[in-house]
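2024-03-11 09:14:02 INFO worker-7 job=invfold-0412 stage=load source=structure_tokens
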């Protein structure tokens, strides 16, 4: 399965969820921030912010979220699905999409088939709209990450168990839904 977008506010656990899906389902991903840093952000800001490596730029991204969002928006200006297309041509999951316009364009183009929202809003702050404007209503699956890491992994185990259902052996009640 490819074409998964994992979204949510900063530091809410998107990469942890992606890593779990990578190990359990064999899905591939690279943090979209690292992808963007290597592709265009490092070159755009290394001088003004004094970075000497892509890794240094990536590690400091949290201190410049609005700047990163504006650079990604400019990169996608003429084609809102551009970054989604690039990431999903190399990986199964786009982890960290931050724009409703870009996510909508990727869904319309058929690049994104499932949107997973990771929510830790009861224990962590939300992001300002200048760096993240996707709403939970765009999600197909919402993963509650407000508890312990053990609880998160239990929820993920249950979700993965659904995907790992024996090939070709379905439940008669859901077969008609799965054939669409």
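2024-03-11 09:14:09 INFO worker-7 stage=emit residues=180
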């Amino acid at each position: 399965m490819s074409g998964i977008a994992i979204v949510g506010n900063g530091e809410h656990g998107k990469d942890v969820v992606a890593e779990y899906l990578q190990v359990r389902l064999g899905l591939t991903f690279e943090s979209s921030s690292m992808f963007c840093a290597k592709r265009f952000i490092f070159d755009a800001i290394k001088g003004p912010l004094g970075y000497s490596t892509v890794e240094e730029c990536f590690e400091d991204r949290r201190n410049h979220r609005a700047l990163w969002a504006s650079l990604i928006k400019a990169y996608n200006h003429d084609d809102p699905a551009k970054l989604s297309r690039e990431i999903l041509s190399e990986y199964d999951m786009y982890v960290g999409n931050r724009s409703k316009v870009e996510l909508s364009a990727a869904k319309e183009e058929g690049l994104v088939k499932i949107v997973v929202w990771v929510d830790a809003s009861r224990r962590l702050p939300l992001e300002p709209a200048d760096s993240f404007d996707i709403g939970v209503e765009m999600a197909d699956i919402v993963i509650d990450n407000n508890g312990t890491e053990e609880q998160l992994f239990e929820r993920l185990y249950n979700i993965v168990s659904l995907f790992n259902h024996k090939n070709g052996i379905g439940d008669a009640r859901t077969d008609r839904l799965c054939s669409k």
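2024-03-11 09:14:09 INFO worker-7 stage=report msg="Strands lie at 4-7, 93-95, 114-119, 141-144."
2024-03-11 09:14:10 INFO worker-7 job finished
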